[in-house]
Amino acid sequence: MALRELIEELSSIDKTTLAAVVFVGLVTYRVYYHYSVYVDVESVGVPPGILGPWKAALRHTKEADALIKEGYKKYSKDGKFFKIASIPRYLVFPTDPKHLQEMNSAPDHVLSFGDAGADRISIDYTMDHSFRTETYHLKVIQVYLTQRLSSILPEIISEVTLAWQENTNIGDEWTEVNVWDIMLKVISRTINRMYVGLPLCRNQEYLDNLVEYATTTSKSGIIIDMAPRILKPLVSWYILDKPKKLKKLMKFVGPLFEERKKKMKELGDKWTDRPDDAIQWILDSAPLGADTDTESLVNRILFLNFAAIHTTSISITQALYDLAVHTDLHNPLKDEITSVIAEEGGWTKQGLTKMKKLDSVLKESQRMNNVTSIAMMRKAMVPYTFSDGTFIPKGTWLCAPAAAIHKQEEMQYDGFRWERLRKEEGQAAKHQMVSTSVEYLSFGHGRHACPGRFFAANELKILVASIILNYEFKSPTGERPKNGHFGVSCVPDRGVNMLFRKRKDV
Ligand code: HEM
Prior knowledge:
By secondary structure, the protein is an alpha+beta fold. It has a domain at about 1-135 and about 375-410. The protein is built from 20 helices and 13 strands. It has helices at about 1-10, 15-35, 50-75, 95-105, 115-120, 125, 135-145, 150-165, 180-195, 205-225, 230-240, 240-265, 280-285, 295-325, 330-345, 350-355, 355-370, 400-405, 415-420, 455-470, and strands at about 40-45, 80-85, 90-95, 110, 175, 375-380, 385, 390, 395-400, 470-475, 485, 490, 500. The chain has a six-stranded mixed β-sheet with strand order 1-2-3-9-6-4. The protein has a three-stranded antiparallel β-sheet with strand order 5-13-10. Strand 2 (about 80-85) and strand 3 (about 90-95) form a beta hairpin. Helix 2 (about 15-35) crosses helix 10 (about 205-225) and helix 10 packs across helix 12. The chain starts with a helix and ends with a strand. The mean pLDDT is about 90. Bound molecules: protoporphyrin IX containing FE. Protoporphyrin IX containing FE binds near residues 141, 444 and 452. Its cofactor is heme. One of its GO terms (molecular function) is monooxygenase activity. It comes from Morchella conica CCBAS932. Keywords: Heme, Iron, Metal-binding, Monooxygenase, Oxidoreductase.
């Protein structure tokens, strides 16, 4: 059954073709498993027999999260490694924090995050092969977006507030709101206020195309990853239809790059007041020799959207679902937000860092509902041996069992857990939402930890704070909507509505 569900989940296109692709992928997997990479660590969820890994790989599509938790529970006591089968490959999990640190310390030419990430979304087909070697778009986030957080705060606040108001119609009576649908619109619009600015960031056709692009890219990337190498170009041509999707987005963003390049050529260094947006950041970050034709540049901005839109929309939806069933936290949050804004004389970046209860509920939600069950993916580019002698052949994938680490000891939801911990001596920084470690992996950890987390945390705080200040909200059933798991991805239930009404004390 898992195969049919997998195809339904992934596909908005011809199902027979997809079934064929997945089938061929599965056969390839079998060959791959038996004749290529063999990692001598314990397997989880692989039934005995020649078809065992094949069945296990199918189970992975729906039960990866549960299998990883099972493996972690069984093997972490002794700090042992374990592996689970997925359709394209085995995933190997260290459970000892020491081994996760070793993984993190290994250089990229030994254990590569970039290659694992690129394979996972089939970057050569979904985006561009140059992403494997040229990663200057990371600088756009690390340097430009992050360092400008203070100065761009007023724009984030105005866009978040306006986008929420324009997409909802909430009055004094309880009103049903599909949080997921609204948040996709709010988040894509806000991030694009930073990336491409006004007026394009408010063009709904552009935003819808972006969301569709991000969704198709991620789903198609996974399918292409399952296909045998020889069939990848064909599968990609058939299911992705990249030229058509790219053309639609080129229509919106292409002219912005063209215009900017022209002006840079005309004015050169004399152009001192260049716009402060991602169009400019990309042009300024592109190293000498990088491909700067308009299509390549547009690809970079699409990647930045791809990385930001779904991760942030999922996170805000999860946080609101948690708060919709923990309504007792609303007033303490409101008191904290109100007093910080009063103390600071308005919204400031410094003020956002002082909102520790708010930070805590967001972090707790991330802990309970990881966007992915795994983090710190690495592909072994050469054979690698851990300090305990565990041998990892070239081509093996290593991952941190993030969701399993987060939920050990069956810790129940406790919204202000991290705020309390931060009061303990020397713990103030460690328990912030953006502080990563081998124990808190929602944004990954180490050299490749999410560079967008500082921006995302601020955006999430502003959104939750403005909702808490202005509305009451709750789950209509009193129950928290259940998460769905697909492979290692964890997604909120997108079909449910929450109830909102204006606060009477605003
Ligand atoms: C709440 C929202 C977000 C979550 C939960 C999230 C989560 C993650 C995770 C788990 C990773 C992998 C890190 C690792 O495993 O070590 C990652 C990487 C990445 N994220 Fe995010 N992310 C979020 C928002 C963003 C935003 C807003 C941006 C862009 C502005 C962004 C850009 C990236 C990029 C470019 C990488 C790859 C880093 C590299 O190649 O070194 N993310 N993110």
